[in-house]
Write a structure and sequence with these properties.
17 helices
Amino acid sequence: MNLVNHPRQLLSEAIRTSIKELFDVSWTPRVIRQHKNKSYGKLTFVDYAVPCFEIARSLGISPEDLTKKICNNLVIKHPCITSRFTVDSVDGYINFELCDQFIYSALKDSAQWYKKPQTLSSEAGFNFLVLGDETFGDATNIQRKACFLIQDIYRKLGAETRIKCIFSNYSKEAIEQIANFFIKNNKDKKKKLTVRSTVKRSLRHNVSSDFINEYKTRYSLQVRQKLQNIEYGNFIYESDLAEETHTFISQFVTSHPKQFIKDETSFAVFLACDDEYVSLRTSSGILYRAAFILFLLNSILKETNSHSESPVVIAPQYMHNFINEAAKLFSSSGVVCFDPKVSSADIRDLSSIKSLSNHFSQIITVISELSEVKIHNRETRQNLLILVDLPIELNEYVADKRLPALFDLLNNSKDKLELLRT
């Protein structure tokens, strides 16, 4: 499908040109689907609409007068629009109804796109950094499903993704998590007390403990076994980054003395972040999880700066402020933060989709089975246009990294597809 000839693209370009012709002003219109409209004017269906309130206000013209002028201009100077759409202006909106021939053409073209999807993005690739909520439970079910979907969507559109997942098995928080897990799953009270005292001594003095080393190894093996069949990204363990992170923190403290505070009497380091101090290293020299995050942010931003793009950091909401503030130390472009829990309902519902290829195949089947009677049913017509618009919206959301909207969009298309199949 040539997305340039998509109904929304044609309307956007024609109205943008009309505004330029009439007022010598540059404006990018917003083409929407108007599901509910109290006044349809002379149209049987309102397939698309363009609200003109904002541009009318800036031009000092009433929305009603402006939409009438644009409609007249479209009729006189843009036969490519009037041959495909019936045009009307109502209450500050320019409304469009697709002609029968064009709606069939749009459906046919969209089916071609679903057979061979493509991206409009010019970016060389998209970087993702995945930070889990828990130390040894980093890849939670929702997060894992979100990463699978992201990889599937971007790959299907031919967009390269680079996903790095960090698993905590070395930081102060990881040691505490090990202890909590052992205590929770051990009934021997004496052993529980021994574990608590061992962990406290280890954290206070950075002393190596056979117990801690044993459970670090055990947890790492468990995590690796769980993840051995997962293919959505490169997995990194804190233990593999510890030496580099220590060096990075020490160098950065020296080069950015205003942002970092170092305790000269110990190994403790803090980052000044939005009127708060974030601990990076304990007085005994044990790294906090924030230190590893800082190191990885610097690494991924160095990589993405050469492509002039903002990486996506998939992390719990409570981490977002720290991540955004820390990213400012390394790059003006910043990062896009996303918490999969925000889209948990959509992500769970999308689990019924085996793959995007399978979803697209079902859409193609439904489109090919359509009858003229169905197209002239108002609700069915709107549901079909959602599938016609999906290629454009997928491209927009992928390029803009609008992940919550992306999952909602796919879930909506799944629901409409089910309605069309009944």
